Amino acid sequence: MENEPVFYPEFEHPASQLSAFSLCIDVFIISLKNGEIVSFKPNEIAPFKEWLDRFKVRNIAVNDGISHANRTANLSKAPNGFFNLIKRSKRK
Predict the structure, then answer these.
(1) Where are the beta strands (DSSP E) in the chain?
(2) pLDDT tens digit sequence for 39-63
(3) 19 Cβ partners below 8 Å, 6+ apart?
(4) Given strand 37-40, what is the order of strands in its sheet?
């Protein structure tokens, strides 16, 4: 990667400033390390995505950066068996 360009043609931010990206239809939504969010619509999607991959910019569609152990449980659903317990109690 030493001889590789740090900038992608027509994209104003160097690879070293990029934190993560997401592709939405044909527009890349990119998070910069300074917290700024930018969008970029390249002429061709595949070469730009390959450039991001070469510089190991995180694709949030693949890795959201949150370990599964630290995720909060979905509290909108009752634990398994809860409704069965209520149904059995009402039958008596």
Answers:
(1) 18-24, 27-32, 37-40, 58-59
(2) 999 999 999 999 999 999 999 988 6
(3) 30, 31, 32, 33, 57, 58
(4) 37-40, 27-32, 18-24, 58-59
pTM (predicted TM-score): 0.64
CB proximity list for 11: less than 8 A, separation 6 or greater: 40, 42, 48
What distance in Å separates the CA atoms of residue 15 and residue 56, rounded to the nearest whole number? 9
Quote the CA–CA distance of 41 and 23 in Å, as a whole number: 10
Q: How far is residue 56's CA from residue 16's CA, in Å, rounded to a whole number?
A: 10
Distances (CA, A) of 63 to 28, 46, 54, 60, 68: 16, 19, 16, 5, 11
* Angle (CA) 47 60 40, round 5°: 45
